[in-house]
Design a protein that fits this description.
- This protein is mainly alpha-helical.
- It is about 85% helix and about 0% strand.
- The protein has 11 helices and no strands.
- The radius of gyration is 25 Å and the shape is elongated.
Length: about 325
């Protein structure tokens, strides 16, 4: 995973500065998210302490408004930077391909067809344009946010923090296994998509010949095969990812239940106050959201890496 992230970061070129800014502001997004948790904690303290004044309610409201406004503003800035980076990093690559095509010898097309090059410049690079910066920033920011959340939980109660750490390690191990397995199928998927574009372009260019000699059913044999190969490779990717995605979800849900049960047991044993126990129950539903957001981008990360490799080969 780290190798693919480095590859994507190097591919960004001049747009690395926008990606860096997006990751930087992603840290503050996590900080503003913690104000929402703080607002909940103020309310829980007031309810368990018998406070009937409006002080806790107003404090929680201000924290929520501050959290929502800050996250909305940061989210807007980071999305603009990601969109800018995705568009221009791919645009620069397409321009570089065009410049090289002006100077290559004609014998180059004996090995590489124009349809394949067109497929790389459109379908293959479109994956990088739409998913590359988003995946990179979501993974790195998700891990940063999860780390900030975990440190806050350790400060809250070290026993709950250890459970969060264990659940995170298990989730990352499953994610690593999925990323290693994806190496087997994602390059084939990218190659089949490029071949499909090439076959479609060839079919369109030769449509007059197909109609003149009534080659329907014979002349489109290649495009039918390309469609079948694309279907098989896409299904192979989904079949590979599905068990790992299921295992990821089950691991997080399992540890959420364990955190909830542990909070109840600690309260019944008298080692955890009622307010902290209720807060731990609430945290069990929220704690893994950031790491889950980061892990969801790993499945797309390998596709982006394969697209970059295919584009660099051209």
């Amino acid at each position: 995973m780290i190798t693919v992230l480095k590859k994507l970061y190097q591919f960004a070129g001049d747009e690395q500065k926008n990606i860096n800014k997006s990751i930087f502001w992603g840290f503050f997004y996590a900080v503003f998210h913690m104000f929402q948790i703080a607002a909940i904690y103020f309310v829980v303290l007031a309810l368990t302490g018998g406070d009937r004044t409006y002080h806790a309610a107003w404090t929680a409201l201000l924290l929520l408004v501050f959290s929502i406004a800050g996250r909305a503003l940061i989210n807007r800035v980071t999305q603009l930077q990601q969109t800018h980076a995705g568009y221009f990093m791919v645009a620069n690559k397409r321009i570089a391909i065009g410049d090289k095509l002006k100077r290559i010898p004609m014998g180059y097309f004996n090995e590489k067809s124009l349809g394949e090059i067109t497929g790389v410049a459109t379908t293959v690079l479109d994956v990088v344009e739409t998913s590359g910066p988003v995946v990179l920033v979501s993974i790195l920011s998700g891990f940063i946010n999860a780390l900030v959340f975990m440190l806050c939980v350790f400060a809250f109660d070290w026993r709950i923090g250890l459970l969060v750490l264990a659940g995170t390690i298990l989730y990352l191990w499953i994610t690593s296994r999925m990323e290693q397995k994806s190496v087997q199928v994602t390059p084939k998927r990218q190659e089949s998509e490029a071949q499909l574009v090439e076959a479609v372009l060839e079919q369109l260019q030769g449509m007059s010949v197909i109609k003149s000699f009534n080659l329907t059913g014979k002349g489109d044999k290649r495009i039918r095969q390309a469609l079948e190969d694309s279907r098989e490779n896409n299904l192979a990717v989904e079949k590979l990812f599905t068990p790992y995605i299921w295992a990821q979800e089950m691991a997080l849900h399992l540890f959420s239940v364990v955190i909830l049960a542990t909070a109840v047991c600690l309260y019944l044993s008298g080692t955890l106050t009622l307010a902290n126990a209720l807060m731990a129950v609430i945290i069990s539903f929220l704690i893994f959201s950031q790491i889950q957001s980061a892990g969801s981008g790993v499945s797309a990360l390998r596709l982006v890496g394969s697209s970059i490799d295919h584009a660099n080969q051209v």
